[in-house]
Amino acid sequence: MTASRTFGVFAIVFAIVYPIVYVIATEVNLALFTYHPALGEFGLGPNAPRNGPAMYWFGWMTTSALCALVVAVIAAYLPERLTKRLPATLAWLVPLAGMIAAAGLMTKYFVR
Amino acid sequence: MLMTALLIVHGLVAVALLGAVTHQAAAVWWPVRAGAGGNFVDRFRAVSLKSYVNAIVVLYLATALLGAIIYTHYTISARIAIIQLQLWKPYGLFEIKEHFAAIGLATLPAYWYFWRQPGTDYARVRAMLTAILTFIVWWNFLIGHILNNIRGFGS
Asked: Does this model's pTM top 0.95?
């Protein structure tokens, strides 16, 4: 059984957009929501910590997933002539670059 | 108590994921040649590549979900202690773990899709996506262990 071409375009574009948005979201804190684990509360957008640490990771992932979802769904329904040249290589190259960038941004913890 | 139980289940699911993705990665990057001997290493590499795909996707999602639940407890317990002890290198390693886990999620639809494609057209894409997932799973497994050894539950 093979998956459809539409899903293929969706999957490639999702794999491209998500890591880009994620790295940006972590750097400029574009969390869609904040979780305050000590209180068990959620806040819309990036909130300052309340009575303990604030968790932005869930918010960063949600921001990235929603952005990637919207772009990927639009791309999936574009005419085939526009998407047939979409390089499949980008489906692994961009996530790999995203991982390198995310790890590189953490070097501040290794030079203290 | 609940978090300790979840941590153990998280670890067990991660072991299953580690085994599945390592089998697939070994088979795709180091395939068994025809007529090779039937020793342990050959049999480890001689698995049906596609049969692992759904299991890896489900196990990755399950491991990530359990990890996300535990992460809330880690943030208000172990993480605070690690910051107070100024253990910045382990702290940074864990930050990388969370980023890798998140980016790994983004590759799952493409990983699943390309393993569904017949023939060898996308062999390199499949191999690279498998390698990336394998690296993420190994990294996250080892760093999770290191952090747990430094400041795990009950410490």
From this structure: no
